[in-house]
């Protein structure tokens, strides 16, 4: 067998290690996926990024409530941070399955929670009091409550001793401290944050539009903004002024995604995404796609690249772009009915970005490519070729390693 280079071996070892930890750790999203009565709880574990924290830990208990219990919580209209605090109060940092819950030494115990572990809780407020009650019932209460709450253990959902236990409880555990309003970035001045970091023109355009309120309204629930840099935005202004009032608002809202996407989310979640401009049949979607280390945002007309991260803190992310995003709903691509089998939107390459594309630019028509380049297409091909090659190489390396490993066994 041919010996792989040390770099390939290192990469292969890493892949194998990642593979092992990925297969052996639990996945709370997956565990709850088949239990539709907990779908809201499950969704919020993902939105608040608690799922990842739960998956990282061992010897824990997740106390879930059904969708009705979650609507009680959601009806309080708490911010996403506060919901995160409340849900983290439902993750006990010890393993309690049905058997252990019913056999608590001396009938009562305090369990530390993930909320306590965040350091946000004071005194005993981050602990849950578990008490064995008459008639085989188990009560759960915030430890700092004098009067026990009516929350009870309902049933065990999944037990993986002693890694994770998922139990259903009858209601959300109240906690004044976990439910206390958490200062969120809704107080942040979005336009200011963009203005001082190279997106002044976009920020000023936004301030003069009703779109600004759309952005503000979405911060608490999670928001990602792609702001075109000043050069790109300045060149675009004449075309912007030509749009109708509605078109202007949609164009601006097209630069926001109503969920929080960290840069690593963007790198791992390639594909179509709705924007703040999406309105029923008017899709106004963008396509997120990796290009090596870069993240690109594609429309049918233009491919923009993320040039910098201005803000990245749950629930708000702001990235600057090298181009203005042109939705096909406002800027028609070529009328030529060219039945292009080639991948779309390859025409714009950062190297050739002398000017932003014209509204009626037939940028994604292959017939017009010569202006913007066979080069860019060639680049893309080379890139994807390289990616394929690397993937193949590391797969081969992993396989070799696996083979060598089996020989040793
Ligand atoms: C518990 O987690 C450890 C470490 O991730 C793993 O090795 C073990 O297989 C897990 N146990 C079960 C029953 O899944
Ligand atoms: C956990 O499972 C969900 C749903 O099956 C999946 O989308 C997600 O990628 C998994 N997470 C990890 C870390 O494997
Ligand atoms: C149980 O109660 C006994 C007597 O009150 C005490 O000594 C012991 O520490 C308690 N055990 C636990 C785990 O609390
Ligand atoms: C838990 O709460 C019950 C009822 O309020 C109380 O009697 C018990 O002492 C508490 N347990 C602990 C460990 O604080
Ligand atoms: C936010 O910053 C902009 C400058 O970008 C300023 O004009 C505006 O008044 C600020 N808004 C608030 C609410 O402070
Ligand atoms: C604005 O619209 C007019 C009329 O439709 C057109 O002639 C002009 O070229 C447009 N200007 C720009 C900058 O797109």
From TrEMBL:
The keyword Transmembrane does not apply. Residues 1-25 form the signal peptide. Keywords: Cell membrane, Glycoprotein, GPI-anchor, Lipoprotein, Membrane, Proteoglycan, Repeat, Signal. Pfam families: Fasciclin. Transmembrane segments: none annotated. It is a lipid-anchor; GPI-anchor. SUPFAM superfamilies: FAS1 domain (SSF82153). May be a cell surface adhesion protein. This is FAS1 domain-containing protein. It comes from Solanum stoloniferum.
């Amino acid at each position: 067998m041919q010996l792989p280079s040390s770099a390939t071996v290192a990469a292969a070892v890493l892949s194998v290690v990642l593979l092992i930890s990925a297969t052996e750790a639990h996945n709370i999203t997956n565990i709850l996926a088949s239990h539709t009565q907990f779908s809201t709880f499950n969704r919020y574990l993902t939105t608040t990024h608690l799922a990842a924290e739960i998956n990282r830990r061992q010897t824990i208990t997740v106390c879930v409530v059904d969708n009705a219990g979650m609507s009680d919580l959601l009806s309080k209209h708490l911010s996403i941070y506060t919901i995160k605090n409340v849900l983290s109060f439902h993750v006990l940092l010890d393993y309690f399955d049905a058997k252990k819950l019913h056999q608590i030494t001396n009938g009562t115990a305090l369990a530390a929670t993930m909320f306590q572990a965040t350091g946000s809780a004071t005194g005993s407020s981050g602990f849950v009091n578990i008490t064995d009650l008459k008639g085989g019932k188990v009560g759960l209460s915030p430890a700092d409550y004098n009067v026990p709450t009516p929350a009870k253990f309902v049933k065990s959902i999944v037990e993986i001793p002693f890694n994770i236990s998922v139990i259903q409880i009858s209601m959300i555990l109240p906690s004044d401290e976990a439910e206390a309003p958490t200062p969120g970035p809704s107080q942040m001045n979005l336009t200011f944050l963009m203005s001082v970091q190279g997106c002044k023109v976009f920020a000023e355009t936004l301030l003069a539009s009703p779109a600004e309120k759309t952005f503000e309204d979405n911060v608490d629930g999670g928001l990602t903004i792609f702001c075109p840099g000043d050069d790109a935005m300045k060149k675009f202004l004449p075309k912007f002024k030509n749009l109708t009032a509605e078109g202007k608002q949609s164009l601006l809202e097209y630069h926001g995604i109503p969920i929080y996407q960290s840069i690593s989310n963007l790198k791992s979640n390639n594909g179509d995404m709705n924007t703040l401009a999406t309105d029923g049949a008017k899709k106004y979607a963008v396509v997120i796609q990796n290009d090596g280390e870069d993240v690109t945002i594609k429309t049918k007309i233009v491919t923009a690249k993320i040039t910098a991260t201005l803000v990245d803190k749950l629930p708000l992310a702001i990235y600057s772009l090298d181009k203005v995003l042109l939705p096909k709903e406002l800027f028609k691509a070529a009328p030529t009915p060219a039945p292009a089998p080639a991948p779309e939107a390859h025409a714009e390459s950062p190297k050739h970005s002398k000017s932003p594309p014209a509204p009626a630019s037939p940028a994604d028509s292959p017939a017009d490519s010569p202006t913007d380049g066979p080069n860019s297409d060639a680049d893309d091909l080379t890139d994807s070729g390289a990616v394929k090659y690397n993937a193949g190489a590391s797969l081969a390396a992993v396989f070799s390693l696996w083979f060598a490993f089996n020989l040793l066994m």
